[in-house]
């Protein structure tokens, strides 16, 4: 009997020990939060995936957050995240988005306001002032931060310095006259077929390029809570834009031109200079080497240039059950001296001094210093309005009509402003 009791006691102790080990292991596993980040396929996903394994092996033990990247196809990406966010899905924690979409999601309450997280030094032991001001302002809605700036983009004026002198494309009048000089139909001795080209395709980049003209001509998109792009300055900016087409200094099929076509036009020597995204730098530099130069876009005589700037961002899902862990991941990726520089090494231009002004990238990404200076001096961004994505669609339509000669610049902008007013009224943003 005594032996039986002793045996029973040993069995009970072994069971208790096993249970302790089992539940102890379970607690440890539960302490690590799996954070799912939705990113559209392409370089965006490649950048983050390239260091996710490093993060999970080296940072997760301290942060308690594990990063898992899920790619979604580019064509349906924005529709998918919009559906998921508005449905308050808990299936993901972070969504990659353009900063101009933040307002609609913030107003709907489906992305997490982040001010309190940034103010907690245990979650964000970095200096938020390291961000370019336009980048951090671009992720705010009604004064509060709703996302992390991840990838800043702007437009440069790219030119063949073996053909064009920088001073000859400094102002818009210089820009047009030099474009004529390098258009073969106007100057048979021109080494290029056309001087330049435009983002003429009926796509979102059409108004984005036109904003460069609008702002540098002294116009604004929205002023005092009302559409302002049909001001006299706005009309003059569109008249000049249309003039490039009418003067024949851009290819006749300009209406098919978007990023790739514009890139190829300069790569193949079809044009002498173009306004194009910073992302084109590596391709063009590989083609032209030291014969390629970049500078800020033109200005009016006596005026200032304007650098259209937007930021790809990462927002925390308001329905996420891992909000703090998600914030930790994004803080390390964008602000940590190790994480942000690692992403910079992969080619991601995070809008901070630590990345864009890092001497390590002076040879691999020599345009980043210029980008930083241009954005700091000339950077301008779209207004963060719930109605602005709709206003941009309206502008695509009417800018296309003006370029095609179907409407005068004045009539096109007046019609766009009226529809924009209706969109702002519907969103409660018109004053």
Question: What attributes does this structure have?
Answer:
single chain; 431 residues; alpha/beta; D-Maltodextrin-Binding Protein, domain 2; 8-stranded mixed beta sheet; 12 strands; globular
Would you give an account of this structure?
Helix 2 (43-58) runs antiparallel to helix 14 (339-346), helix 9 crosses helix 10 (232-246) and helix 13 packs across helix 14. The protein is of the alpha/beta class and 431 residues long. Helix content is 47%, strand content 15%. The chain has helices spanning 2-31, 43-58, 60-63, 77-86, 102-108, 115-118, 133-137, 172-181, 205-216, 232-246, 259-267, 281-288, 323-335, 339-346, 353-356, 367-378, 388-403, 409-426, and strands at 33-40, 65-72, 94-98, 140-141, 144-145, 148-160, 222-223, 226-227, 273-277, 292-295, 307-316, 379-380. The termini are far apart. It folds into two domains: 33-152 and 309-380, D-Maltodextrin-Binding Protein, domain 2; 155-307 and 384-426, D-Maltodextrin-Binding Protein, domain 2 (3-Layer(aba) Sandwich), CATH 3.40.190.10. The strands form three sheets. Strands 1, 2, 3, 6, 9, 10, 11 and 12 form an eight-stranded mixed β-sheet that branches. A two-stranded antiparallel ribbon has the order 4-5. The radius of gyration is 26 Å and the shape is globular. The model is unreliable at 1-5 and 7-29 (pLDDT under 50). The chain contains 18 helices and twelve strands. A hairpin with a 2-residue loop joins strand 4 (140-141) and strand 5 (144-145).
């Amino acid at each position: 009997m005594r032996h039986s009791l002793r045996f029973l006691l040993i069995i009970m102790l072994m069971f208790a020990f096993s249970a302790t080990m089992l539940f102890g292991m379970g607690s440890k596993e539960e302490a690590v939060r799996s954070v799912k980040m939705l990113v559209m396929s392409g370089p965006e996903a490649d950048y983050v995936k390239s260091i996710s394994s490093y993060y999970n092996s080296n940072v997760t033990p301290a942060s308690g957050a594990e990063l898992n990247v899920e790619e979604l196809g580019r064509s349906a990406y924005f529709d998918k995240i919009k559906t998921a966010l508005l449905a308050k899905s808990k299936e993901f924690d972070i969504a990659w988005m353009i900063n101009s979409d933040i307002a609609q999601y913030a107003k709907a309450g489906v992305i997490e306001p982040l001010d309190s997280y940034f103010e907690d030094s245990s979650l964000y032991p970095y200096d938020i002032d390291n961000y370019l001001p336009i980048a951090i302002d671009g992720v705010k809605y009604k004064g509060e931060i709703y996302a992390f700036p991840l990838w800043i983009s702007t437009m440069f004026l790219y030119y063949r310095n073996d053909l064009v002198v920088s001073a000859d494309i400094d102002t818009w009048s210089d820009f047009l006259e030099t474009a004529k000089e390098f258009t073969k139909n106007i100057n048979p001795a021109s080494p290029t077929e056309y001087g330049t080209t435009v983002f003429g395709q009926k796509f979102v980049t059409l108004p984005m390029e036109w904003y460069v003209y609008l702002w540098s001509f002294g116009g604004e998109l929205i002023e005092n809570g009302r559409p302002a792009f049909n001001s006299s300055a706005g009309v003059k900016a569109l008249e000049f834009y249309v003039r490039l087409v009418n003067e024949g200094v851009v290819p006749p099929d300009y209406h098919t031109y978007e990023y790739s076509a514009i890139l190829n036009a300069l790569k193949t020597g079809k044009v002498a200079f173009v306004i194009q995204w910073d992302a084109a730098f590596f391709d063009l530099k590989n083609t032209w080497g030291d014969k390629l130069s970049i500078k800020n876009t033109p200005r009016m005589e006596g005026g200032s240039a304007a650098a259209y700037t937007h930021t790809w961002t990462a927002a925390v899902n308001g329905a996420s059950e891992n909000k703090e862990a998600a914030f930790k991941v994004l803080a390390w990726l964008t602000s940590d001296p190790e994480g942000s520089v690692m992403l910079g090494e992969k080619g991601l231009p995070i809008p901070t001094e630590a990345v864009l002004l890092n001497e390590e990238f002076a040879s691999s990404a020599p345009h980043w210093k210029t980008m930083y200076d241009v954005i700091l001096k000339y950077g301008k961004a779209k207004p963060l309005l719930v109605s602005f994505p709709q206003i941009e669609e309206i502008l695509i339509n009417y800018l296309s009509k003006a370029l095609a000669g179907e409407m005068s610049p004045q009539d096109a902008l007046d019609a766009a402003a009226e529809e924009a007013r209706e969109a702002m009224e519907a969103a409660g943003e018109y004053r």
